[in-house]
Write a structure and sequence with these properties.
It is built from 34 helices and 25 strands. The chain is globular, with a radius of gyration of 29 Å. The N and C termini lie far apart (67 Å). An eight-stranded mixed sheet has the order 3-2-1-4-5-6-7-8, with helices on both faces. A seven-stranded mixed sheet has the order 15-16-17-18-19-21-23, with helices on both faces. It is of the alpha/beta class and 810 residues long.
Length: 810
């Protein structure tokens, strides 16, 4: 059987979703055609440019605009701007023949069944026999979209529902049609998971599939409760966001982001296609919502929706809609004491307490929660075969902290059902049978393995484990912890590889983390093939813990502060010169000291969403654990000792231009927007790897350790002869600082810090091309770091960051 592959793709439709799907494909190295309609008429700009209706620039205008929009999108749609070079713009009239080259064709035009069907009919003659065709519909029937296509095309046709923005949202719903080849479905799931980094859920060909069906049901219900019980827009958003384990955008801010017209279209799709009248009525929004659409109060796309930014004498303010008058009024802060109590609670605790609270916040939370739970139970097996698919879809697609059935476990199945009965709710028969059989949880854990309750079997079924998905909490449950302290744990991953996990507050580097790094490397050298430094927190590491640095600086406890900085430097040196390979597995925020740990590792295996940078100047300091020297090495190690080498006593290459790049990187506190950009900036080296799927990160890092060990790993040799730019190089860097200050780009203290950084990067007060040791550079870095801790304005920056979590420019 011929092996399937996807080496070239085509996206039909260059709107927000189409262009961003094309950007994702280009970002993983797949050349992609992006096609759209030919504009109807020339506009004034076209005429000024001398274009005609036959000009390619006019005919491809919409696709080209889609590409341009992705380059400047926020959040970034592309990993690096160069990805755009892999996207070729075209149009439906001139370039459908290009589809003959495409291995995967994605239809992503407007959510209109007739338009989709017409376009696919026109495209079909150009599609090669083994091509895969999918639609990115958010809820239309896959079988109806493909009903006019040939039988052969139908076997290659399926739904691939990306969530917006496609780069950042992990969920991909794959929806087979009734004719779709099963092997093709398996191939697409594997390809999208590994190559595109998607978390795949299989949905059935029912209206709105899984996530939109459940999510929009909840939104429609909350809109009705808003009116029924007299809540304000602000009150509902305060309750239905983080306190209920949902994103900060909660209900109505989410509606503004998505677009109210889009949401109503999704609701209408269920209303038109659901068979049960009672269910259909649950998707009917209140009258005022329809008035909003009629008045173009659609949200961000029209700059007014449930919220509106209003300019006034004191600057811009956010006003909220008063739906009773259809006027905008200044936001009113909701007065719910319980929400203040729950701010520091974990999602499960917060949800449990809120659901059973008897105040107005709790009553709204309970009312929306019970409706959602009952609806989800009713929809199995209609929209999905199992509860796991539903829970994953809502976590991955709507960013819920807990899926519906995980939520039900948290609030207590029997307890909640008893309350529902008292309130006259209809309890789904499958839930009654489950409780009658003594099953009171949807999920169970036994011996480190997870099980879910399967309604069809009326029993618990093991959730299959996959070797490429390593779950650290599961390893801990199986007593795989080798050693631990409050800041970190050393965990046996199997196959002779250990994982050093941080679990300090915000995964910041504190004394416990530093201790565990040193002990972890020592343990790995004695008893393992190698070590992974990774974790599964919200971020890899946000840097050094200022809660330990700032008090010491404020109290002038220089002795202990120097000991702490030196211990961190030595820990990074232990990582660098470990006798066994140490692979860092960074993801998301990898800042300051977290970045320095990675720079010291034998290899970095980074998740593509890795935001890496040395940001210490923002808190009035410089990198203090070796980050300066490691970036210096990355910038200069490739230079030859003398140039040209064939001439005796040849001239030594100038270090300054390369050091200047590192200087700018640190002085501007530059943070990568992706792992790919981190490579461009110099944080990652050619030997480092990038993993698209976060769930595979630790597995790939473990494989990297084993590969290094298999190749008979040899640690680097200590650096004893390092050429530095000296005073001559520092003068060049200080001239850059002067120009920035004169142009008012930086403050006096910024300039002061930048000059200190220049001093360290150029090797201190020495002549040009002086040779120094690695220990000398660490001592230099540490001395400057400590001196900056004593600066009043630096302390003010640290204090401000601790109090507000925002940098201070003083």
């Amino acid at each position: 059987m011929k092996r399937r592959h996807i080496r070239k793709a085509a996206v039909l439709g260059s709107g927000i979703m189409g262009s961003r799907i094309a950007a994702l494909l280009a970002g993983v190295g797949i050349p992609t055609y992006l096609l759209d309609i030919v504009p109807r008429d020339l506009d004034e700009d076209d005429i000024k440019k001398g274009l005609t209706r036959e000009s390619p620039a006019f005919r491809n205008k919409l696709a080209q605009a889609g590409i341009k929009a992705t380059i400047g999108a926020r959040p970034p749609a592309m990993f690096v701007a160069d990805d755009a070079k892999l996207i070729t713009p075209g149009n439906f009239e001139d370039h459908l023949s290009w589809l003959a080259d495409a291995d995967w064709i994605i239809e992503g035009v407007v959510e209109n069944l007739a338009i989709k069907k017409d376009l696919l009919r026109k495209a079909e003659p150009f599609i090669k026999p083994d091509a895969i065709i999918s639609t990115n519909t958010s809820g239309l029937s896959i079988d109806k979209i493909s009903e006019d296509l040939s039988q052969h095309i139908k076997t290659h046709f399926l739904g691939t529902h990306f969530f917006n923005p496609p780069r950042h949202m992990s969920l991909l719903e794959i929806i087979p049609g009734s004719h779709t080849d099963k092997d093709l479905v398996g191939f697409m799931a594997d390809f999208c998971e590994r190559r595109l980094g998607k978390s795949v859920v299989f949905a059935k060909d029912t209206p709105n599939f899984i996530a939109n069906r459940i999510g929009v049901h909840g939104l429609a219900g909350i809109m009705r409760i808003l009116v029924e019980d007299g809540y304000t827009i602000e009150e509902v958003d305060a309750i239905t966001g983080p306190p209920m384990g949902k994103p900060k955008s909660a209900t109505f801010r989410t509606s503004d982001l998505v677009g109210l017209d889009t949401l109503l279209s999704v609701m209408r799709n269920v209303y038109d296609n659901a068979g049960d009248e009672a269910e259909r009525q649950q998707f009917v929004p209140p009258d005022f919502v329809q008035k909003m659409v009629e008045n173009k109060l659609l949200g961000d796309k029209t700059r007014q929706g449930f919220y509106k930014k209003v300019s006034g004498p004191e600057g811009s303010q956010i006003h909220a809609l008063d739906y009773s008058t259809m006027d905008y009024v200044p936001q009113r802060k909701p007065a719910f004491p319980i929400l203040d109590e729950l701010k520091k609670a974990d999602p499960a605790t917060s949800l449990q307490k809120l659901a059973y609270s008897e105040d107005r916040a709790g009553l709204l939370a309970w009312k929306t929660l019970k409706r959602t739970l009952i609806y989800c139970a009713d929809k199995i097996p209609e929209i999905a075969d199992d509860i796991v698919s539903v829970d994953r879809a809502m976590r991955w697609g709507f960013n819920w902290e807990l899926g519906p059935f995980e939520t039900w476990d948290v609030v207590g199945l029997r307890k909640s059902v008893e309350r529902m009965r008292k309130e006259g709710e209809r309890i789904p028969e499958k839930i009654e049978k489950m409780l009658a059989a003594g099953k009171e949880r949807f999920y169970e854990k036994r011996n480190g393995k997870s099980y879910y309750f399967d309604f069809a079997r009326a029993d618990y079924v093991e959730i299959p484990e996959r070797p490429e998905i390593i779950v650290l909490p599961a390893l801990k449950e199986r007593t795989k912890v080798v050693k631990s302290n409050p800041g970190g744990s050393l965990i046996d991953m199997g196959d002779g590889v250990a994982c050093l996990e941080f679990h300090s507050r915000n995964n910041a580097v504190d004394a416990d983390v530093i201790q565990m790094i040193a002990e972890g490397v020592a343990e790995a050298e004695d008893n393992f093939e190698g070590l992974v430094i990774g974790n599964q927190g919200a971020n890899f590491c946000v840097g050094a813990d200022l809660r330990q640095v700032f008090p010491s600086a404020q109290n002038k406890d220089w002795k202990n502060l120097e000991a702490a900085v030196k211990a961190f430097q030595q820990a990074c040196m232990r990582v660098k010169y470990s006798r066994v390979p140490v692979v860092a597995a960074p993801f998301r925020m990898t800042l300051g000291g977290g970045c320095e740990i990675c720079l010291a590792a034998s290899q970095i295996v980074a998740y593509t969403e890795c935001y890496m940078g040395q940001v210490e100047l923002g808190v009035g300091l410089i990198p203090g654990a070796g980050g300066n020297k490691e970036l210096f090495f990355r910038a200069t190690d490739w230079l030859p000792g003398a140039f040209p080498p064939i001439i005796a006593g040849g001239r030594q290459p100038d270090l300054v231009p390369h050091v200047a790049r590192v200087f700018q990187l640190i002085a501007m506190a530059t943070v990568s927007t992706s792992a790919q950009e981190a490579r461009q900036l110099g944080f990652l080296q050619p030997r480092d790897r990038i993993v698209m799927n976060y769930n595979h990160l630790l597995y790939q890092a473990k494989k990297a350790v084993l590969a290094l060990a298999e190749a008979v790993y040899q640690p680097p040799r200590p650096r004893a002869e390092i050429r530095v730019p000296g005073r001559t190089g520092r003068a060049v860097l200080e001239s850059l600082v002067y120009e920035m200050r004169e142009a008012l780009y930086i403050t006096d203290h910024d300039a002061f810090l930048a000059k200190k950084l220049a001093y360290v990067l150029t090797g201190g007060d020495v002549d040009q091309n002086t040779v120094v040791t690695e220990e000398y550079l660490l001592d230099l870095e540490r001395d400057v770091f400590l001196s900056l801790c004593g600066e009043e304005k630096s302390q003010a920056r640290m204090k401000h960051m601790l109090e507000t979590n925002k940098p201070l420019r003083n």
